[in-house]
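Late entry, written up from scratch paper. The run itself happened at the end of the previous shift, but nothing got recorded in the book at the time, so transcribing now.
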Amino acid sequence: MSLRAPLYNPAEEHDACGVGFVADIEGRASHRILQMGLTCVKCVTHRGAVSADAKTGDGAGIETQLPRRLFRRELKRLGVAESAVERLAVGMCFLPQDPTQRDQAKAIIEHELERAGLVRHGWRHVPVNPKGLGEHAAATQPSIQQVLIGWPEGRGAASSGGGRRPDTVAEDDYERRLYLVRRQVERAVATAGLDCYLPSFSSRTVVYKGLFVAPQLAEFYRDLADPLYETALCVFHQRYSTNTFPNWVLAQPFRMLGHNGEINTLLGNQNWMRAREPELKSPVWGAEIQKLLPVIQPAGSDSAKLDNALELLVMSGFDILHAMTMLVPEAWQQMPVMDPDLRAFYEFQACLSEPWDGPAALAFTDGRIVGATLDRNGLRPARYKVTKDGLVVLGSEVGIVELDDAAVIESGRLGPGKMLAVDTTNKILLTDEVIKRRLAHQRPYGEWLARQMVRAEALRINEGKPALAFSSETWPELTRWQKSFGLNAEDLQLIVKASAATAKEPVGSMGDDAPLAVLSSKPKVLPAYFKQLFAQVTNPPIDPLRERLVMSINTGLGARGSMLEETEPHAKWIKFGSPVLTEPEFQWVTTLADPAFQAARLPVLFPVADGPTGLRPAVERLCRAAESAVDEGKTLLVLSDRGVDPQQAAIPMLMAVGAVHHHLIRQGKRMRCSFLCETGATWDIHHYAALLGYGAAAIFPYLAYATVARLVETKELRELDLAAALHQYKKSVEDGILKIMSKMGISLIASYRGAQIFEAIGLSREVLDLCFTGTACKLTGIGFPELGAE
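Output as recorded:
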């Protein structure tokens, strides 16, 4: 029986490291490039960490092009014709220590290669020297072997060596076959319960990594000292793991990238990728795409999961530079001087995927192009130098390798969201301007957006219309609403009134002596059971005022297509400047005649006569109703808790949103719709953040608005008319959302939505599993009957 550390959650795996690359612009493979890469990784040793034995590191490694001269010798040893090296692929394998399990894993690999029609030349034991390893690293060291793979004769895979220009179509097909084989192997070994991991499986690249402190890397892998090991590029990485247990698998680089930083939106990115899987389609894969699922491998760190997403895009036909800008785009919404074509490119990419947001310096390669990019805030260092003889060195530090300053023709650092790359095939250094110009003009993105995207702000929906349908005759009903949803006199005065009066989120004194919601003797609203997480360790928060240029709460509504294709219908979206809607905006969007934006109103209520035990069945009915609406082609699901009366009680809106969100993900239908919440259950900034964090796209807070209207009517908001008071309350909410996002270092509402940046306190596993899947809860508690009673 295995014991699980009670406070450890594998989903919290993060990295904070030293990373970079060395490359020859001319694409000349040499042992020198490898040695420079090894020197660089040694020089960022201080960016890693060691265990108590002072020898076991958090991980270090390199990724290079396949050293064909070295493997020509290995093929000769196996009795294979040396010419086969031009069509060679190598699978680096971390196999189980147990001989029986090791044979099992090798048999699975061989079987999948045979099924894919690829040739297995043989197995190679990677020569290693384990003497310098730390105690933990030595005890967990896998059996490290390489499987040498060939492309069948007559299928036309061309050489990538010998100075000839490769047949990229054939090469890409080869890489896809290998990717598919690896994914099938990973699925099979997981089913068999085998401890087997494939660091690389490619005809272009190979990864040498492990649980080292950086200087141990070259000592452990004897191949790295072999003069026949030649490469034109080298990505290097020294790992410092945060909130993790280091192991051989999580050492970097991964198959396409090395990452320094954290992905703050990880759970949301993972959930959205899972939601996308049923919608994925690509002419590259056809029906075989189902064999690639799940895209995100659950045991990985944040860096490994980003690598999973990058690899899928590249293997599905996206240029690696394009794929990186899609996953980690630069700030564009608030940039007034950005080229309109580039802005259109980024806006279109936002229709395909939400950004993986957080502090990041990323070095990446597909074996031909090697590059690096920074997150939109530029919160990780990346400095580079270019020499006269065509050498490019980029890393987390200055001076990580000794260069003659007289030979340096250019030096600098990457700015926020910027990219630098070397194309070793076309022998060119690609600057950020060149890369972005090329990407911006590869499709008519601006024309697609102009024809398809509906921009709500441009329609001036709020002009000439009453701000709110409200009159003093509804005061008795308003009082009942306030009581039903838990809006007490203190919240009314200190939150709603103060927000409307000042246009700012109210600030109180430090400290909170109120009991936890689960321990309180008074009923609490459901968001009170959730605490917001905040940036920690090496993961800095950002200032929502100073960093406003890179932050955005622009909100899109509508169905979303496959992220593996770029077509004009992908731009069919409604864009709002904020997730908080006015009444005219809400009425407009929910009554559109456009078939692409049909709304379904779903009552978020349950009969009082059913008692507290009626809550869970009501949630399950709501989930089924939402699924039926999606099946009918509705793309806007309006979750409404209007209609509360002595016979009907409201399901907590946060519970409704979370339950429907996860139900549709499980059913493979989440990407076909957006959620709009018509609710009386939001007035505090935390309430809005929780709804957005669990998947809501837009919110119409009718009770909060009506309460502001009543304050205007009774002259409690002096010198403010209704329109001004509502505007100020809405602005306070929007600024508060930005502040909450910034506490976790998140810049975009698109990335915050569904990211579940919360910890639950005092909720049962039953509630969490149904409504808030994946949310951490170290102290469980009450279930549906107790929440129903409240």
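The CA atoms of residues 118 and 151 lie 6 Å apart.
(Scratch paper discarded after transcription.)
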